[in-house]
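Researcher: I'm preparing a figure for a lab meeting and need a structural model of a single chain. I don't have an experimental structure, so a prediction will have to do for now. The sequence is pasted below. Please return the structure as tokens so I can convert it later.
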Amino acid sequence: MPIQLTTLSQSSLQDYNDCPRRFELRYLEQLTYPAIETEPALENEKHQQEGEYFHRLAQQHLIGIPAEQIEKLANSDNLQRWWANFLPFSQSHLSRLTRRHAESTLSAPLGKFRLVAKYDLIGFDQDKIYIYDWKTYRKRPKNEWLAIRWQTRVYRALLVQAGAHFNDGKPIQPEQIEMVYWFPDFPNDPAHFPYKGDQFKRDWDALVKLSSEITNASSFPKTDEVSKCNYCPYRSYCNRGVRAGDALEAELETEAEELFDINFEQIGEIEF
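Model: Understood. Here is the structure written out token by token.
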């Protein structure tokens, strides 16, 4: 029996956008994965775990733990390389920020749901507000691809909608925001996405429409883009193959939902 879904995130919205059936199986039915998502499976799983661990190292650095202590925890080739690339980036870019909020969660009402996002870093530089997100991709994605992802749209729009408490209670204007994806394996090639008022209106209107569509959906059809099924762990439910897709390609097509406990008493939000 489907559960009563109460929250939406960039990951669940991206799943719904890519394949409503995947959204249904993952978030409404909450079925376990019956198929390996990518090949080689163990190598990909290790890379994902290292990516999560890198996020923790970055968070520890941003809250003031000395770099020498953190460096000792970088116990793999990937982590050592990412950490070595992160330090100069932090010194040249993040050190100028006057306020930093690492691993912060925001929430706002969206139709019958709450829209929730967890930010790697929200940083202030005078009137400018930067959203930083660390991506441990093995391939540098194109900016055009990142621009249309729901993460880029949700994170900026939600900061406008629910981020005033970060700004001394003053509303955040879209023009103050810039989202930056930083890639540890491509440290000198970050992706920058400024924001504007018309983009915010477009994004929030689209989010409201999507939430209404999900609320009123009587069915969740499979995607017509069969190529997306190569990377979907639910493909065997749909009789769309058993062989997993290539891990490097899958990174740019599927993104695991970040699991975090939601305590609405302690996160930035606006009331219903």
